[in-house]
Structures are given as C-alpha cells and as structure tokens.
Design brief:
This protein is an alpha+beta fold. It has helices at 5-36, 41-104, 115-132, 146-153, 155-172, 196-211, 239-255, and strands at 136-143, 178-183, 186-192, 215-217, 220-222, 226-232, 261-262. Helix 1 packs antiparallel against helix 2 (41-104) and helix 5 (155-172) crosses helix 6 (196-211). It is rod-shaped.
C-alpha cells in the first residue's frame, strides 16, 4: 500500500512522539530508582517535582498522540482521497481533451487528417523546407462523377467509396507525406522532397491504383476514376498560392476529360 507524502510525514511525526514517550517513561523509571537510594529529603523533593514534570510531558505527548491519530490523520486521509479524485478527474479530462483535439484534426468518415490539419501541416512543411532549400510537392485528387454515385447508389455506397480511396492513398504514400481529405470527394497529398518529374510519376501511380480498385458494397460493384492536379513549391510562395496552383491544375484535368494528371 502506497502512502501519500503527507501521510508518511504524519507517521514520522507519530514515531517521534512514541520515541519521546519511551524516553520519558525510561527517565521517569530511572529517576525513581535514584530517588529510592537518596537519604536527603530536600533532594528527594526535587526529584519528585521533576518526576511530576516528566509525567506532565508524557501526558501532553499522549494527548498529542491521541489527537493526531483520531483528528489529524482522518483529515489527512480525507484530503488525500479528494486529491486523488481530483487527479483522476484531471487525467480523465486531459484524455478527453486529447481525444477531442485528435477528432478536431481527423476526418470522422475515413480516419484521415482533415482540412484543418492539412492547412497547418502544409505551412509547417514550407517553413521547414525553406531552411534546407528543398522542394515540396502538392497533389489534389478529386473523384470523377462522385455526385452520380451518390445519386444512383445512395450515400452509404458513396461513403464506402471514400473510405476505399482514403485507404488507397494511405497505402500508396510515404510515412512522412501528409494525406488528408479536404472535404467531399477531394483529397490532398503533401509530398516533401519531390520535384515535378517525381510528382508526376507518383500521381500517375495513385491515379492508376484508384482506377484499378473494385469497390463492392452489398450487391453493388463500382469502378471509379480520379483527376489529379499537381504543383511544386517555387520556394518563395506562401501555402495558399501553392494550393491555388494545384487546384488550377485539377480544374484543367477535369476540363480536359477527367481521369488524368495535370501539372
């Protein structure tokens, strides 16, 4: 059983009182042994007076011991229990706070990072890679004719499509890439240390992987395609400008027939 610091201090205090009581009792006994062998009455009276003082000190120690055990210690125990409850409550609230913080940065449907996380991460990546003068690529992936899937097969099937695409993107990307669902059927990948040639090959692999999936939901079997817009950071522009350029390339991919990569 583990004791709180205040409880341990109290037990030390009790031990000191008990030790003092033992010493007083021993001195009291020794004093009377000496007094029994003295012949002079004056010295005997002084020893009797001293014994009374020792008895009074012992009585005070006994009172302190009683008061400590039956009044102070219960107060300490109550305070410790309340402190433990507060600590447990604080830990619970902290865990809930961390859970809510994760939820605020996570897309509830796919389990991917959300737009808020993406915006912050993109800015941080640009700040860090500006120091080392290395490229950062941005890919925006948008599913083709997704509204038609929802209208034809229902939102449940549409949700299964989004989950499947999210898993595909997580499987195809590196551990330090940022993969997020921006909203609706639009996803984004921040790929650091990739130039345009590498980004195009990377995006083509992802586009083909999405196009090669067979999504089954109940008796529905779907094949989907995606359009991809690419931009590589020019090492000067802010995150918003980089995103706009990638989004413009996505619009171009949609405009020129979908299921393609534009950079």
């Amino acid at each position: 059983m583990r004791f709180h610091k205040s409880e341990a201090a109290f037990f030390v205090f009790i031990a000191v009182i008990l030790a003092a009581g033992v010493i007083i009792f021993h001195a009291y006994d020794l004093l009377f042994s000496i007094a029994a062998g003295l012949a002079q009455s004056e010295r005997f009276d002084e020893i009797v007076y001293l014994s009374k003082l020792l008895f009074g000190a012992g009585l005070l120690l006994a009172t302190g011991l009683f008061f400590g055990l039956f009044f102070i210690f219960p107060l300490i125990r109550r305070q410790v229990r309340e402190e433990n409850k507060l600590r447990a409550m604080t830990e619970t609230l902290s865990a809930q706070s961390r859970k809510l913080e994760r939820a605020a940065l996570t897309d509830s449907l796919t389990g991917m990072q959300n737009r808020r996380y993406f915006d912050d991460a993109l800015k941080e990546y640009l700040d860090e890679f500006r120091r080392v003068n290395r490229p950062v690529g941005l890919m925006i992936v948008d599913l083709d004719h997704f509204k038609q899937i929802n209208d034809t097969h229902g939102h449940d099937v549409g949700d299964e499509v989004l989950k499947a695409v999210g898993n595909c993107l997580k499987d195809m990307t590196r551990y330090h890439d940022v993969v997020a669902r921006l909203g609706g059927e639009e996803f984004a990948v921040v790929a650091p240390n990739m130039d345009m040639e590498m980004m195009v090959r990377f995006a083509e692999r992802i586009r083909k992987a999405i196009g090669g999936m067979a999504i089954v939901s109940g008796n529905v079997r779907l094949k989907i395609t995606a359009s991809v817009g690419l931009a590589v950071w020019d090492r000067r522009e802010p995150a918003e400008a980089l995103y706009r350029r990638a989004d413009q390339q996505l619009y171009q991919a949609k405009k020129t027939g979908r299921n393609r990569v534009c950079a």
